[in-house]
Amino acid sequence: MQSVNLQDYRGAYIELLEGGNAFYSTDWKQYAGLSQVQGNRRYEEYDTYRRSPYSYPQNYLYFTFTNMNDDYQNIGGTVNINGQDIDSGEPVPFFFDENVTAIAEEIINYSSADYKHHNWQKNYADFFRTKSFVANSSQVWDYDIHFKVPDNVNITCQGGDVLQLEIHDPWYVDANGNQPNDFRLISEVAPAGIHRVFRDQLINPNNPYYSVRAEDQTIGGREAYFLKWSGSGVTFQNSSARQTAVVFNSPNATVTANMKGHLVSNSATATAHNNGRRIVRDAANTLHAVYEDGGSIWYTHSTDNGEHWAGETRIAAPEHHRCLYPAIAEYEGALHVVYSDVFYEDENPTAAEIYYLSKSAGGAWQVVDGFPGSGIPHPSQIPKPAVAVWRSGSERYAVISYNRFNVYSRVTTYYKRPGQISQFAGEFAGTNPSLGADELHIDIRLSYEHE
């Protein structure tokens, strides 16, 4: 056996030329012996070690890998070290400069809860299950592998197929044990729409976070395109963007992708009733159309005589329960739309308010005003407003006519100019008013069904 001075061999190999006990130095107070460990490796085992700021020399470095929850409790399970499963918290010897690959478990059941791997060493950016390093004295020797209990969330799609939505879940592990860290279809990640995520994972470019993405779809031969994201218990970075980061703030949160079928409505009366126009043509031969779908009013236009129509714009969402019966008029490039915003109780319409909005040539849609409402004594008596444009000198007025059923059926008519609403004299007993203008929009004609 060769005698050595341990002070000269700190951090280096010490080779035993023969087996048996080896007394290296009296500084160590005790002797070093040979032991067998997992994998048939030999290592020096010291009962006590020198009290100094230096690490004692050894043939192997010892690392521990401990699966922990947020309370730093050892939650059990194993860690795969270079292909061998090691119990959580057990020391593992490595040769100096040995290449190490450690793979954390995906799920560990502890105290009747399923914990999912989240990060290493409380470093949120270190979120992959697999960690590789070279064993040397400059490495961290005690690795804490942190696990959290995820929450269920529901990802849905309104007007489209939920299975065609995508989610970027950095912690998602596929069937082969890979952690792809990119977008995956909901049909792959959560076929039933239920997915498990970590709560309050903040949007930070230096750390992993969740994102959702929706593409246009073809449903029943019709194009459906993305409108916006909505939900409960969630915060979107940009709810109007097809792809957006999202934070799940509470258990059982819901994320909904709102899709719109092109020229599609869920209402059989989307363009019903001929008292008000649903489509008009301007001087440039552009067609402008409005209709109701899903309780909202939608606008679209065509520049090729109706062969193709532009993607819809939602110009009115219900203030109360449902928007119905839009009508449109055009003059000098400006568009004017009226509709009923209806209250419902137990699925029965009870009252309605009339709203008017307009859009100048090249401008944006804006709500201009509301008009006195109406009671609805019977579901068939929802007001169906009509609109026309009246020119008087340099002034332009929107003329709106509709039924009021507060006492009995009356046709009432208003005209609107900036800052003022005026009522034409007289109301008429009747229903379903219709308005028309002559070519110069100087004369306005009102017709209605007389009772």
β-strand amount = over 45%
Q: What kind of sheet is the major sheet? A: 6 strands, antiparallel
Distance between the termini: 121 Å
Q: What is the average of the pLDDT values? A: 84
Structural class: mainly beta
- Name the quaternary structure: single chain
Count of DSSP strands: 35
Whole-angstrom Rg = 37 Å
Task: Assign the CATH topology of the largest domain.
Answer: Neuraminidase
Helix content: under 10%
How would the global form be characterised?
elongated
Q: CATH class of the largest domain, anyone?
A: Mainly Beta
What's the SSE blueprint?
Elements: E1 32-36, E2 42-46, E3 60-68, E4 78-81, E5 84-87, E6 91-95, E7 98-104, E8 107-110, E9 113-120, E10 130-135, E11 142-148, E12 151-158, E13 166-168, E14 183-185, H1 186-189, E15 194-197, E16 210-213, E17 217-219, E18 222-232, E19 234-236, E20 243-248, E21 253-261, E22 279-281, E23 287-293, E24 296-302, E25 313-316, E26 322-331, E27 334-345, E28 348-359, E29 366-375, E30 386-392, E31 395-404, E32 410-417, E33 420-423, E34 428-437, E35 444-450
Parallel strand pairs: 3-11, 12-21
Antiparallel strand pairs: 1-2, 3-6, 4-5, 4-7, 7-10, 8-9, 9-11, 12-15, 13-14, 13-16, 16-20, 17-18, 18-21, 19-20, 22-23, 23-24, 24-25, 26-27, 27-28, 28-29, 30-31, 31-32, 32-33, 32-34, 34-35
